[in-house]
Structure formats: structure tokens, C-alpha cells
Amino acid sequence: MNKVELLAPAGDLERLKIAFIYGADAVYVGGYKYSLRANAKNFSLENLKVATKFAHDLAKKVYVTINILFHNEDLAELSDYLKELAKINVDAIIASDIIVFKLIKKLNLPLEMHLSTQASTLNSKSAKFYQDLGIKRVVLAREATKEDIISIKKNTNLEIEHFIHGAMCSAFSGQCVLSNYCTNRDSNRGLCAQVCRWSLKKDNDTEIFSITPKDLNEVAYIKDMLNIGIDSFKVEGRMRSIYYIATVIYVYRQIIDKIYDNTLTSSLTKYYLDILNRCANRESTSQFYNGLPTENEQYFLGRQEESNQDFLGIVLDYDEKNKIALIEQRNYFKLNDTVEFFGPKTETFTYQIHKILDDNDNEITIANHPQMLIKLPCQIKLNKNDMMRLKIFDKDSYL
Amino acid sequence: MQTDKYLITVTDLKILDSSKVQNCTFLFPLQKFCCGYPLTFKLEDVIASNSYLLINRILTDNDLKKLKELLKNLNTNIKGIIFRDLGVLDIINELELNVKKVYYLAHNGLNYESINEYLNYLDSVVISTDLTKEEIEQILQKLHKKAILYTFGLIEIMYSRRNLLSNFNHYYNLEEKLVSNVQEPITKKGFKVVENEYGTIFYNDKYYYNANFFKNDNVLFYWLNPLFLSSEKILNIYENLVSGKIDLSNLDIEIDSVFLKQKSISKLKSDVDE
User: Fold this and answer.
1) Quick one: which of B53, B7, B9 has its CA closest to B219?
2) Which fold has domain B3-154+208-261?
3) ipTM score of the complex?
4) Which of A119, A200, A288 sits opposite B182 (nearest CB)?
């Protein structure tokens, strides 16, 4: 079984650090230009330097997306930008526009090149076209089935990166201008308005419907995907919260590692699945991996989801002598709530809140101000960046 | 206007019987390798003397294997193949087919430098309809080979591998119907949606018409793609164009410039301010 890379999204430096701390082997980020998530904070060149150093110090990697489709007006500064990325020594760029690959070669820049999912690759021959241009890795279309992936792996010697988790488009990525058409926002230059999640009317019906896909979730097939030789498992969501990134990356890290050491049980898998579904607030399925999706893989009446406030706080520090954790609040909680902590070095455990102190050590009964600092006495050692959440699922009951 | 500069998709078989379009080249959507076309053709049914094939699906290795077998028996009346998936290029090269290799850029290749790079491997491209008139003008000026200009027809707004209409019909236990009109109620934008077993295409519901480049030397073909129009209507359009009447308002067809006059936004104001 190959050693797979777990690849996380990072919309900014904070998310990047959380992703690495929670077990990602690499992250993909958008620079301040030419990225498809224009609404994410993204990275200035200065931040990219910091991010790359942070990653390399941990022996991890940073990939930069340059995955817009370039119009004539976008070309002018591309060469300079690529030169800057090469200087920073990022580990690869992810692009689909041929001009990016050609320029990197022409300028003889030491940048590894990955073909973006925007290129909608479903077969080995189109992958080889770009391989001849110098790409080392292909990010497959999310529409690739297991059969497609096996064939591409067998017929190319490219690294295969594949999405395993997150939101899906209704269309092939890169084959949709619904956003441009309905809102004038360019979906292929970072401003997708997600019209495929809006309500539509069909024929002369008065009822509305949607063509919204459920989320992607490959928990059930991770072992299978390892066996067929996928090289990188990619998680979608550069605009997601640190809690989402921490939870999703932590869960997949656990699953992958437990598969490697042969300790993953079906009951534990069920527990992880429940955690992931709760975190995303949406239903999820394996989508295309096991065949073409049916009516069961999409919503017809809008998103049937409920937002939750599960993420209660993040641990900033832990005083081992007095056994008190300093926590930054993220959602309302109060005395006697049952919560749980988890973290990369902290086995998930249940905690009943018996005492809350404010940052002046006064006892309070509720934590109701966003990002207020509070202290919780805790006998079990916590670590910086551990997460505190509502206890919804009892892990022990699954075992 | 030269009559041999038109490429007309066969969407109604009667068009092939008309002597008025005898100098045109006809584009046949290839059965099992197209999506979004209610009428598709087996290779043996491609009979016009100047024919092109359309392969507009994104294909799997399994599809490409079948396509390769099929194209081994290509007749000489087929002068070109327009394809969306670059995997097809490899098949054409392997079989050493004597056809024009045309890349249907769809939403890709939106600038002249990228298109020129692709043209190093190809004979021509179909320029994307996602562009403004000014962008197309600049592209046509700078290409080192001639391009096909999508001139008239519904334009593709979205292509999915999902069976979106069938899924809807199954979910609500409705009769199977693979062509539908859909509207987005807030913007009132309408779509013509066409599905087959290979996926679904959302077109805009009004006919795109780009009448800006009829005298451009860098155009290989003006592509008329008259989905859902009768052969009479198609002939009317064609006759208007070849006689120099580029105003089609007398034909009772809803026309929309779509992106030709509308530059899409790629930065929000807040991004620009920063």
C-alpha cells in the first residue's frame, strides 16, 4: 500500500497552520492573484514565504493554485508572478491553463506543475497531453469513477490526486458559466456565485427545485483508494472554518493511519462518518467513485441542512502546574454543558463544565462573547490548538 | 459572403436535401460521443460530401477505446473532427487520420497566447463563446492559424456528467423527459436543458448571434448551430447571412448577445480597493 498524501485546503495562514497541526501532509493555497477562490483571504507573497517556511520546517508541502482561466487582460503580470513563486520555493503550482505550463518551461523556472481539476481529466490520453508539457501530477475531475482512476493510473506514470471530501459542483469543474450568465460573476476567474445551489423552475411548473449535489465523502472507500494507488487525497474547502479543517483533516488522518496499522474497525468508521457529516451540516455521499450518481446523490429542494454551533472554542494555552486551560470562545456555552476536546495529540475526551473563569479569574456562568478569553480547569493535559466542541456523539457507544 | 465558409450542425435532416446549402460543410454530432444534441448520427449516416464530426463529451479511457475502433473506418467525406477532449487528438494522430483536428475550447483557452499554444498541436479551434466582442477581435488578430467562430446557436452554459433531468424525474416519479425548459426565478434567466445517458447540458434559451466578424480572414468557418430550429428557419438564417443581411430581426427568433457585450467580473470592488 502506497504512502498517501493528505492534502488540505488553506484559505489563509491560520487555516494552513491548523491543517498541518491536525495532520495534513500538504496544503493548497491561493495567492493574491489568479486563484479561483477570490473571496478567500488568500496569501500575499509575504504570507506565502511564511507559509512555505512553516511547511518546510515540518517537512510538509505548499501548493499554490493558479487555476483561473486567463483572459487576454490577465496575461501581463503572469511571468513576474511565477518568478516570485519560484523564488519563494513553493512545492508546486496547480493550473489548468496551458499558458501557465508553457511559461514555466519557457522561463526555466524550478516549479513542479500539477494539472488542476479545472481541466476535467477523465482519461489517460488527455492527461498525457499535459504530461508531455511537463506536469508531474494530475488532479482528476471529481467525476472520475474508480474504473477511470485505475485506467489513468495504469496508463500514465503521473501522480494521481483525487478529491475525497467536500462540496461538489453540479457541472464538471471548468465546464460551467452559470454564474457568469446569471450574475455576471466569472466562475472561472474566482467569483463563482454557486448558481447550481439556487432554486430553479422547470417547464411551466410553479414548484421550485434545485440541482444541488450532496457533498463528497469517501470515508467508505479510503482503503480501496489506497489499494488502487491514488497518491494524494484532497479535501475541498479553502473558505471553510478552522474548525471544519481541523475536524475533517483529523478524521481522515485517523482513518488513513488506522488503515496502515490495520486497526480501523467498521464501528469506528461509522463514528468518523457521523463526525464528518455533523461538521459539514450537509448530507454526503461517495458521488462518482462507485458509478454515476443517481437521484440519491443530490438535493431537489434546496440544501436540507441546519447550521450548528458545535465549535465552542480553541485552546490557546495550558497551565500544567495549575491544570487550567486558556480558551478562546467561538460559540456560546455555559456551566454544566457537556463538551469534548480533541486535538492532534489529545485523544478525544468528554468534559463536564463545572467552573468557568474569565481572563481576570472571576467566576462566570456563561461564555457568550465571540472570541472572549476564558479559563477552564481541566485535569487532562490539553495542548495549544486543541478544539472544544459540543458533545454530540459518544465515541464509546460505537466501540 | 463565401458560401463555403459556413459550418452547419445537422439538427434537422431535411437541411441536407436543400440545394441552397450545397457548398456548406455539415457538422454531425457523433452518436454515443456527444451530449446536448437530441439528434446524433452513426458514422455510416454521415453522408454529406463535406462533413465534420462533433465529439463534445469529456471521455473516459473506455470511451476512447471504442472511439478508436469506430474511427478506423472513417470515410473520406469526413474532413474534420471537432472535439472537446484532448484525448481524441491522440486517437487521430495514432490512426493517422487525414482530417482537420479542431479543439472545441468550450470554456477553456480564453486568451490568444493559450490558443496559439494549443494550435501548435492542432489545425484549428472553436473560439469560446464566453468572450466579449473585443476579446474575440484581439484573439482573431493574433492567432497563427484560422479559427472557427461560433456564430449562431444556443450556447453551452453548463455541462454535467450527471443525469440531472432523469434524476429529477425519478425523484418525483415523473415521466421520462430529456429536454426541458428551466428558469432561474430571481434573474429570470432561462435555459434549455438537454440530457442523454452521458450527461446534461444547460444551454441559454435565446439564440446567440455574433455578427461582428464576417469579413475576418482568420476565420476558417462560421459555425451555425441551430438546435431546436426547423430546417426552413435554418435556411432563412443562412440565406440572410450569405446575402449580407446580417440583421436577423425579421426572422422571429429571440436573439441574445450573451457575453459578447457583457464583460464578466473577475474582481469584487473590495478586492480592487485592497
Assistant:
1) B7
2) TIM Barrel (3.20.20)
3) 0.95
4) A200
